[in-house]
Amino acid sequence: MRCIRCRATANVEVRRHRSAFCAACYPGWFRTQVERTIEAEGMFSREQRVLVAISGGKDSLALWHSLLELGYQADGMYIRLGIGNYSQHSQGASERFAAKHGLKLHQVDLKEEYGFVVPQLRNQREGKPCAACGTVKRYHFNKVAVDLGYDVVATGHNLDDEAATLFGNVIHWQTDFLGRQGPVLESTHPKLARKVKPLYRLAERDTAAYAVIERIEYILEECPMAVGAKSLEYKDALNALEERQPGLKHRFLVGFLRNGRKAIAVDGAVEIRECRECGQPTTGEVCSYCRMRERKRRQVEARQGGRPRAG
Amino acid sequence: MKVTILPARESREVDAGDVGQLLKVLKLHQDAYLVIRSDEILTRDVRLRSTDEVEVWPVISGGSA
User: Fold this and answer.
1) Whole-angstrom Cα distance, residue A141 to residue A289?
2) What is this model's ipTM?
3) Which of chain B's ends, N or C, has fewer CB atoms near its CB within 10 Å?
4) B11 lies in a domain?
5) Is B23 part of a structural domain of the chain?
6) Which residues pair with B4 in a beta bridge?
7) What confidence tens digit (pLDDT) does each residue in A179-203 have?
8) What is the number of structural domains in chain B?
9) What is the span of the domain harbouring residue B36?
């Protein structure tokens, strides 16, 4: 296979585009895709300050790297989730990347600052904390972005993430989520940061190849809490289809964003108010983050109250 | 050839003529893995020799972002 740009031996095939690139031409192609997406969706400009949500994985570090190469003002933010060795490794990868490139990395430590860790948030029915972990991340990325005056929060969600989320929302007909899914989530409240996904048209394989070629040291291991997660099953099902029909994931997602979302989105803005407990934006009286923490606090109290007393 | 599958670094001896065939033998989706030889990513048409040593890197991550 030959590079479509210079005819050298190719290293990365992008089957959905019927293209292939050598290691020298690939990073330029990747960054052009990122820049086109940012411009086409009006995500942000080079004058604005971007807070990149960093996990230590390939997507967030590839995003941060490409934004800097493209000349955007991007700082990082990492949340210490307290997931044993996995968190230690991901924190190390994030800190080393920031140090190597002389970048600012904000950090929030859940245990030290808030008194809990993500494994404590396991759902009692499913035994997984993934949904609660998502709530924690969205809450803190938003809070830090607003508190420190960033114009936008950028996450490393890629084509596979977005197609799998869409697949799951369609299977369960989560029409409220379907109406909101997209590469840009506008701010509808002064305390709600604008959120964007500049990698949403690039596949996971594309971001991994970019990280390998650019010698970005990222954590390869999977979050131990996510083993058996539904999102992984959806990705596996979509990859089985993509194997026979290259471009299927792209058509599924982009087709939905062009045609499907409009038909599902509900007219009229949802009223946003400030949480009675923490003051962060929410649609209810108390935000999902505070409700989740209160629920866990009660569970802990109930367990402690149920223990037989010594003596 | 010697194949090392990451992240667990599980090693196996596999007979395959090219990268595409290797992934088929291992029953792995080509969109979910990178095949790497001597720090170079290989496309699916690259011929493999019995003396080659390659690594298979997963690219899929899960959970809630």
Assistant:
1) 13
2) 0.95
3) N
4) yes
5) yes
6) B11, B55
7) 889 999 999 999 999 999 999 999 9
8) 1
9) 2-42+51-58
